[in-house]
Amino acid sequence: MIHLVKRPQPSRFWTAVTPLLAVLLTMIVGGIMFAALGKPPLEAIRTIFWDPIFGEFAFYYRGQLLIKAGPLILIAIGLSIGFRAGIWNIGAEGQYIMGAIAGAGVGLAFYPLDSFIIFPLMILAGALGGWAWGMIPAILKTKFGTNEILVSLMLVYVAEAWLASVASGLLKNPEGRGFPGSRNLQQYESAANTEIIAGTGMHWGVIAAFIAVIFAYVLLTRHIRGFHIRLTGEAPRAARFAGVKPARVILFCLGLSGALAGMAGLFEVAGPAGQITIDFNSGYGFTAIIVAFLAGCIRWASCWPGC
Fold first, then answer.
1. Domain region containing 18
2. Distances from the Cα of 212 to the Cαs of 156, 298, 299, in angstroms?
3. Is residue 197 left, alpha or beta, with left meaning phi > 0 and alpha meaning psi from -120 to 50?
4. Residue 14: inside a domain, yes or no?
5. Is residue 126 included in any domain, yes or no?
6. Which residue in 147, 140, 104 sits closest to 266, CA to CA?
């Protein structure tokens, strides 16, 4: 009889090798699927994995990889912290939208003032907008025992309605000839999230994502709050006996994930997207759920021998 036994500590070897194996298995399974569809598998794999980094137009795609990865990492970090505590925030897309609306609203309120303080205020407003939207399911869960999955998901549709409303009303460009959408923030220097190094895709949202990764590592491995989060997710009853307040963990995790998603929305609307439009939301909040789960699966695999 074969038994899987969890290691006391994650294997360093498997921690390093598992991501490479995951990519390799993705190539193999993806190739099989493309072959079953009658498409050339090697060409499909090359287009997905090779061309963006080493292909003819890699000079453009490499920058786009960072542009797309920034908001995904930022949102996924917030979601993964909640997932570790058994708190399921499925509404990051709504928090992303509300953060973009709040941040863009602050920037447009100062238009056309030229000041270095405007962009930091926009970042703060974006974080607060996402935090406030994330606190709705958090408060409802702690006060009334509602399901955070359903509440956070339903709030996405409310946020989309707000987006359509402000794009056609409150934040509408007065010089836009009647078309819905705000002013282009990229054309407003004090509010623009421009590339730090031209042509690389490196902007302040990517920097914030890297900082969030370090923050999450320190929080979960070196801070008492991180211990409470992990204990709540792994052994809820033991956490209560240890004096952990579940309500505080819920408020912290949903608030943090909302703030990070809101910041991602602000960096996107002030940078690559450029303006608030009816279809501004691009699915980053839902895609980041998959990113967070994949990261969790890789971590899980590194804890088991023979995986």
1. 8-56
2. 23, 19, 18
3. beta
4. yes
5. yes
6. 104
Residues 148 and 224 in one domain: yes
Confidence check: pLDDT of 301 > 60: no
pTM score of the predicted model? 0.88
Same domain, 42 and 17: yes
Tally Cβ neighbours within 10 Å of residue 54: 11
* Closest by Cα among 248, 269, 245, 229 to 129: 269
Instruction: Read off the pLDDT of residues 217-259 as tens digits, 9 standing for 90 and up.
Output: 999 999 999 999 999 988 888 888 888 999 999 999 999 999 9
Q: Tell me: do 158 and 194 sit in the same domain.
A: yes
- 224-234 vs 246-269: helix axis angle to the nearest 10? 110
Helix (H/G/I), strand (E/B), else coil: 234:
helix
Q: What angle do CA 158, 161, 164 make, to 5 degrees?
A: 155
Q: Which two tokens stand for residue 275?
A: 């303006």
Tell whether 1 is covered by a domain: no
| In a shared domain, residues 19 and 102 | no
Q: Under a CB-based contact definition with an 8 Å cutoff, are residues 118 and 107 in contact?
A: yes
In this structure, what token pair is assigned to residue 191?
């509010």
pLDDT for 305 equals: 47
Judge if 251 and 181 occupy the same domain.
yes
Give the model's pLDDT for residue 299.
Answer: 55
Considering the domain architecture, whether residues 43 and 68 belong to the same structural domain is answered as: no
> Rounded to a whole number, what is the largest CA-CA distance in the chain?
73
| DSSP label at residue 48 | I
Q: Crossing angle for the helix pair 148-168 and 118-144, nearest 10 degrees?
A: 140
Rounded to 5°, the CA angle 268-274-278 comes to 90
Total number of domains constituting the chain: 2
Do 69 and 140 fall into the same domain? yes
Q: In this predicted model, what pLDDT tens digit does every residue of 29-54 receive, in sequence order?
A: 989 999 999 989 999 999 888 888 88
